[in-house]
Amino acid sequence: MRLTRYAAAAAAFGVVLAGCSSEAGQQAEEQADNTVAVETDVEFEAGTTMAELAEAGTMTVGVKFDQPGFGLLNPSGEPEGFDVQIATIIAANLGIAPEDIEFVESVSANREPFIQNGTVDIVVATYTINDARKQLVDFAGPYYEAGQDIMVAAGNPEGIAGPDDLAGKNVCSVEGSTPAQNIRDNYPEATLTLFDVYSKCADALTNGQVDAVTTDNVILTGLVAGNPEGFELVGNPFTEEPYGIGLSLGDTEFRNFINDTLEASFEDGSWAEAWDATAGAITGEDAPEPPSIDRY
Amino acid sequence: MQFFLDNIDLFRDAFLNTLGLTLFAGVLALVLGTVLAGMRVSPIAPLRGLATVYVEIFRNTPLTVVFFFVIFGLPQIDTVVPFFTGAVIAVGTYTAAFVAEAIRSGINSVAPGQAEAARALGLTFSQTLTTVVLPQAFRTVVPPLGSVLIAMAKNTSIAAGFSISEVSSLLARLSNADPNDLLFILLGVVLAYMIITVPAAIALNRIEHRVAILR
């Protein structure tokens, strides 16, 4: 055993065994029979973003490529997840078919720039609505309410039950993320280890280099699903993170349109279907109550 | 601007991390690189082979991959190194390959008659190398070595993705905390690197002129 591990490590110099989800393939299949009917007869007031997009017949959407359940690139190179489904629902109401949506990877740090410089039309990327961001972009939604939680090694060897138990522990998160800032501000006794993506946190937790990983519960759920023998979720969310859809500042008509579309999807069940096919397939839980739209 | 000033402490800590990483990794790269260069010109074939393999592996591997190996690969074989030490090892061992090649080019520029004369005087290989060849070699390689070291100072930014809170990691943290101040944050980051690299370039220039050999 030891020998093979050494051999493997030596042979795979630098090849990293990043934790990835085995759910990916199944999700793609389920997603296929779950596409929302594309509106064929759409009419928008001239000059609005909706009219432009409907006219172009295509739109660009920023999503995460590394978050199981929300936005993850599957082995065939297609992004899938709840965020992707939400984008598909919005596109469908603009008369844009799923295959005409161009998905662009938006990591946390480039979401505002992408919206501001027009790289993407909307961002659906586990994007928490907050006041600093509202200065730069407009938010439709929220379409989901997440909360910050903690993931630990299976069996919870450190006995971590909540954020207060993180004092003196080595906690992993992503540089620049809202959860990391929350730990820094409210739980300063925890030692933060910050990588650029959560998959590295999972690797560090596997290796015992950190004691816990903290971020939004949905992201952690995806990581646990990728390695159920190695990780477990504490399951005690301690913040509220409303996920919104980012669009360019001041485009109120487009924002109202997306809000209306979301509300309709809450009611006609397509929102719950999207959840069941993606994030719900990982957690194994039924779709939660849809959040109420915040038309600020 | 105010936001930038509010976070000046962060910049200081991050700057010290970048500086420390640069200094420690620089020393490691210079020492290891010199040893490797010596091995590559040694009369013992296995040493030559070993050094060649080392240089080719590290020179042809992206630094990010070296980082992955040190930070996440080594623990798989029960060798856990602290993150900062790991970053020093990754940057240092990677840069050592380039240092070795720069020094080897300097060694090749020393006229063969020098080494032959040293041997005729009865000096051993290591004596010839350390007292006759290397001192002359170092003088000629100051400019390329300087470029390698300055590139290394900037390469330390890869450590941002591996849990080291160095200068470029502030880019992610601060731009997300207050996306309004992106320009000042960027300027601060550029400035922090220049504080390290510009004096280094000036010092190297001085050294170059001081140790230049008249030919």
Automatic annotation (TrEMBL), chain A:
Task: Note the InterPro entries from the entry.
Answer: Bact_solute-bind_prot3, Solute-binding_3/MltF_N
Record PROSITE patterns: PROKAR_LIPOPROTEIN
Q: Which organism is it from?
A: freshwater metagenome
Query: What keywords would UniProt list here?
Result: Signal, Transport
A single cellular component GO annotation: extracellular region
Keyword Plastid in record: no
Q: Which residues form the Solute-binding protein family 3/N-terminal domain?
A: 58-282
Q: Spell out the SUPFAM superfamilies in the cross-references.
A: Periplasmic binding protein-like II (SSF53850)
An example GO BP is: amino acid transport
- Per its record, how is this protein called by name? Unannotated protein
- What family does the Swiss-Prot or TrEMBL record give for this protein? Belongs to the bacterial solute-binding protein 3 family.
TrEMBL record, chain B:
Subcellular locations according to the entry:
Cell membrane
Mainly resides where?
membrane
GO terms for molecular function, please?
transmembrane transporter activity
**Matching InterPro entries:** AA_ABC_transptr_permease_3TM, ArtM/GltK/GlnP/TcyL/YhdX-like, MetI-like, MetI-like_sf
**CDD domains in the record, alphabetically?**
TM_PBP2 (cd06261)
Q: Per the record, what is one GO cellular component?
A: ATP-binding cassette (ABC) transporter complex
Chain ranges of the ABC transmembrane type-1 domain: 15-208
Q: Does the keyword Transcription regulation apply?
A: no
Q: Which UniProt keywords apply?
A: Amino-acid transport, Cell membrane, Membrane, Transmembrane, Transmembrane helix, Transport
Which stretches are transmembrane?
20-39, 51-74, 80-100, 182-205
Q: How does it sit in the membrane?
A: Multi-pass membrane protein
Enumerate the Gene Ontology biological process terms.
amino acid transport
Q: Which residues, by range, are in coiled-coil regions?
A: none
Q: Which family does it belong to?
A: Belongs to the binding-protein-dependent transport system permease family. HisMQ subfamily.
Tell me the PANTHER family matching this sequence.
AMINO-ACID ABC TRANSPORTER PERMEASE PROTEIN YHDX-RELATED, MEMBRANE COMPONENT OF AMINO ACID ABC TRANSPORTER
- What's the protein here called? Unannotated protein
Instruction: Recall the taxonomic lineage recorded for the source organism.
Output: unclassified sequences, metagenomes, ecological metagenomes
